[in-house]
């Protein structure tokens, strides 16, 4: 066993400083602006604010859907923190640093179990942190952010043969991110321990089935592959591309692809690991154990292929390789990089005289080390990959925040995605929120979108009023260019949808010169304008219609 002397402790502390740096810089950015939210938090975290104020999002079908599809452990964590007075949206900004620290501790120990060299463990944790802090999953604090600490901990306990801990992690994982359970289960089965394998299967069934049954009872089964293939939402440029894309994109990108890590590029030196020659020395041979990495790759790739064959019964294929590849490549790259540095150090010590060319080589090596460590740590660089959404309409948000909590806002603008997070008010529908996986939910969203398009572009104000009142809409947020046919053509989620015929029919009428009733009355009922957006008061539209009826009568 590796003695925990001062060099070991030094490498541990250096490893922990890396996620602390990334986390504190990210947290400072997240708290430095009044209106900023992470992309995925808009879907999965905002609705949990109901635990701080039950009056928020009343009878909101969207809030109910996104709360229902979350696993119980994820909700339990946010609920318990809400009872302590920590708002979910604030907790989502605090959690990533803690999750990264836990990941770093376990990955460090896992790397040591494979190769007892603390410097290698440090390099592995450094490279993984550089990757995950540049992505939008850890920083989101949504269920997929918990995959890194859960998987790293599972791998450590597995390589240490602590199967009881592995069973506990399988249960915890199923309570947070059920898809990862299949990866963990496959790894346990590869250990050929029949008893532990049967127990692992039992735990996996116990945690996954109740979750699936709950979602199925509320929203029915997922769409079938045949149904998805007929829907533009899953085709090229659709809301969730899967079918009809080019073969290279299908294999490598999106929901269907392997999702290979591309940053930092140094990760790719890990592919050289199987070809390196390791020389045992003394009583502590530095020959790495590669079998755990190979098994993780084997299980992940097998599940990736099964997910394609059984699509969508195992949900999205990319989920089985996305996280595993990052851990495998970080650990492998750490080993290879250490070997390179070790070879360079040996070369330095053997050299008796240095020529100009030798100093050039040394300078280039030091420059490479600086690039590897410094460039990925530049805030401007890694913050740009985290998917932060900064609000651009502060006056609009403040106005809507002052409205009754039961207010319902309708909008076809991209800003509708942000309104629940920045105003804590319900929206009728939006691009990001209208996911098409469960028919019961998406049919409701489709009907709302079609009705809203009809209301916004109808030349008859009474028809517009009827739709808005049917849904109980209080405010309508419109773009100043909404009446131009090009505006709808720019909305990809409308053009590449199952209701695209209605959208194209509306565009055709606009091109023929038809004028929406709203464009004639928006000047009377606009309560606030900011940049290219205006808020229309539906109550004002009702009063205008009533006055028109009386004057006509």
Automatic annotation (TrEMBL):
Q: Which residues cross the membrane?
A: 12-31, 113-132, 138-159, 166-188, 194-211, 296-316, 323-341, 361-383
Q: What UniProt keywords apply to this chain's record, in alphabetical order? A: Membrane, Transmembrane, Transmembrane helix
Descriptive protein name: Uncharacterized protein
């Amino acid at each position: 066993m590796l003695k925990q002397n001062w060099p070991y402790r030094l490498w541990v502390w250096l490893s922990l400083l890396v996620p602390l740096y990334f986390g504190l810089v990210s947290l400072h950015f997240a708290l430095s602006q009044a209106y900023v939210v992470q992309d995925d938090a808009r879907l999965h975290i905002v609705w949990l604010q109901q635990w701080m104020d039950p009056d928020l999002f009343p009878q909101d079908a969207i809030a109910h859907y996104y709360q229902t599809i979350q696993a119980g452990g994820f909700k339990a964590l946010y609920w318990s923190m809400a009872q302590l007075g920590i708002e979910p949206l604030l907790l989502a900004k605090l959690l990533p640093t803690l999750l990264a620290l836990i990941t770093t501790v376990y990955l460090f120990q896992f790397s040591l179990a494979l190769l007892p060299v603390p410097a290698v463990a440090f390099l592995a944790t450094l490279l993984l942190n550089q990757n995950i802090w540049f992505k939008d999953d850890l920083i989101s604090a949504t269920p997929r952010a918990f995959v890194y600490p859960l998987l790293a901990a599972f791998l450590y306990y597995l390589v240490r043969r602590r199967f009881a801990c592995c069973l506990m992690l399988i249960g915890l994982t199923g309570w947070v991110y059920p898809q990862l359970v299949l990866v963990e289960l496959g790894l346990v089965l590869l250990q050929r321990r029949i008893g532990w394998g049967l127990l692992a299967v039992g735990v996996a069934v116990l945690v996954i089935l109740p979750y699936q049954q709950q979602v199925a009872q509320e929203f029915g089964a997922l769409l079938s592959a045949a149904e998805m293939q007929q829907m533009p939402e899953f085709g090229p440029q659709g809301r969730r591309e899967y079918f009809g894309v080019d073969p290279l994109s299908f294999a490598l990108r999106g929901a269907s692809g392997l999702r290979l890590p591309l940053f930092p590029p140094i990760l790719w030196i890990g592919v050289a690991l199987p070809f390196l020659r390791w020389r045992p020395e003394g009583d502590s041979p530095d020959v790495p154990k590669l079998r755990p990495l190979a098994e993780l790759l084997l299980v992940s790739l097998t599940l990736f292929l099964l997910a394609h064959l059984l699509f969508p019964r195992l949900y999205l294929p990319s989920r089985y390789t996305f996280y595993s590849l990052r851990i495998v490549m970080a650990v492998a790259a750490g080993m290879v990089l250490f070997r390179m540095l070790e070879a360079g150090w040996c070369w330095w010590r053997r050299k008796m005289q240095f020529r100009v060319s030798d100093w050039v080589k040394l300078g280039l090596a030091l420059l490479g080390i600086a690039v590897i460590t410094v460039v990925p740590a530049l805030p401007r660089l890694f913050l740009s990959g985290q998917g932060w959404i900064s609000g651009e309409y502060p006056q609009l948000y403040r106005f809507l925040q002052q409205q009754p909590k039961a207010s319902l806002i309708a909008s076809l603008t991209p800003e509708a995605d942000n309104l629940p997070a920045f105003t804590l008010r319900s929206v009728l529908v939006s691009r990001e929120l209208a996911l098409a996986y469960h028919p019961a939910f998406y049919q409701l969203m489709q009907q709302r979108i079609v009705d809203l398009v009809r209301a916004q572009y109808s030349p008859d104000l009474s028809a517009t009023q009827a739709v808005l009142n049917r849904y109980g809409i209080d405010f309508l947020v419109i773009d100043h260019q909404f009446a131009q046919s090009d505006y709808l053509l720019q909305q990809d989620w409308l053009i590449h949808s199952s209701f695209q015929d209605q959208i194209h029919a509306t565009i055709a009428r606009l091109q023929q010169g038809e004028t929406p009733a709203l464009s004639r009355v928006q000047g009377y009922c606009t309560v606030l304008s900011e940049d290219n957006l205006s808020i229309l008061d539906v109550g004002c539209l009702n009063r205008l219609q009533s006055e028109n009826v009386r004057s006509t009568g």
